[in-house]
Amino acid sequence: MNYTAEDEKIIKEHWDDLLLSCTKICRNDEDWNFIKRAFFLAKEAHKGVRRRSGEPYMLHPIAVAKIVIDEIGLGVKSVVAALLHDVVEDTE
């Protein structure tokens, strides 16, 4: 089961917003690549999964990553952990 085209659009909008926040913490290509790898791994692991609300599950880890940067002020490793936190908990 995959996400619909509309779901993909919504995920991309939230991802792009997260990337804007990442400009505060990413110092080099290695930082950017670390975050991107975590995002795509999480997206693949949660492919097609939905929350009870019906929204794509992937919006949750993106939202947590935004909080990590914008509200808590943590760095790259914490963003990666936020993106992956439910992969280790909810997927094989």
Written account of the structure:
There is one protein chain. This protein has 92 residues and is mostly helical. The protein is 70% helix and 0% strand. It has four helices and no strands. The two termini are 16 Å apart. The model has no long low-confidence stretch (mean pLDDT 95).
Entry keywords:
92 residues; mainly alpha; globular
List the helices and strands and how they pair.
Blueprint lengths: L4 H18 L6 H17 L13 H14 L3 H15 L2
Helix pairs in contact: 1-3, 2-4, 3-4
> Major beta sheet, specifics?
none
Which structural class matches the secondary elements? mainly alpha
Tertiary shape: globular
Q: Total helix count? A: 4
Helix content: 55-70%
What percentage of the residues does DSSP assign to strands (E)? under 5%
Number of E-type strands: 0
Order of helices and strands: HHHH
User: How far apart are the first and last residues' alpha carbons, in Å?
Assistant: 16 Å
- Give start-end ranges of low-pLDDT stretches: none
Query: Kindly state the mean pLDDT as a whole number?
Result: 95
Radius of gyration: 13 Å
